[in-house]
Amino acid sequence: MMDRFGRKAMNVPGFSILCLAMCLMGLTAFMQVPFPAFVAVYLLLHAANAATSGNMQTLGSDHAPANARGRFYGVFQLLGSTGQPTGTSGFAALSATVGSWMGFLFLAAVSALTAFILGTQVHDRVRDDIKTAQSARSK
């Protein structure tokens, strides 16, 4: 799907669905819904996470400069490795002080910010190559 429609066509909706799932997870914690509702929301969250996790590495490889790939991947991995404990610590701190619903809302906000940044600031080279090839065929 990424190769046909572009990287952003998979990542932006994936992080948007992840944001929705985190909001719903917060709602399940706040309202203490029945277990089957929790499981349904958990499955949605897991599907969105699975759709986005490997794609970010692929998107990074598209943008890595040919003459500095090692340095680019080093910084890319450093940012990812910094974000993981930061998100976990933020979730834990908010859950302990306010409630787990606030921790999920924090993660939802991070997911929404990620979708926004990907949608507005990251250039999708694969999609541009597809458009260029289609316009070349039509001429």
From N to C, what is the helix and strand string? HHHHHH
Mean pLDDT: 86
Content of β-strand: under 5%
- Number of DSSP helical runs: 6
**3D shape:** globular
Integer tally of domains: 1
Rg is: 18 Å
Secondary structure tally: strands: 0
Describe the protein.
Helix content is 88%, strand content 0%. The chain has 139 residues and is an all-alpha fold. The protein has one domain (2-57, 91-138). The model has no long low-confidence stretch (mean pLDDT 86).
Structure characteristics:
139 residues; mainly alpha; 88% helix
Topology:
Elements: H1 2-5, H2 8-31, H3 35-63, H4 69-97, H5 100-121, H6 125-138
Helix pairs in contact: 2-3, 2-5, 4-5
Short overview:
The chain is an all-alpha fold. It is 88% helix and 0% strand. Helix 2 runs antiparallel to helix 5 (100-121) and helix 4 packs antiparallel against helix 5 (100-121).
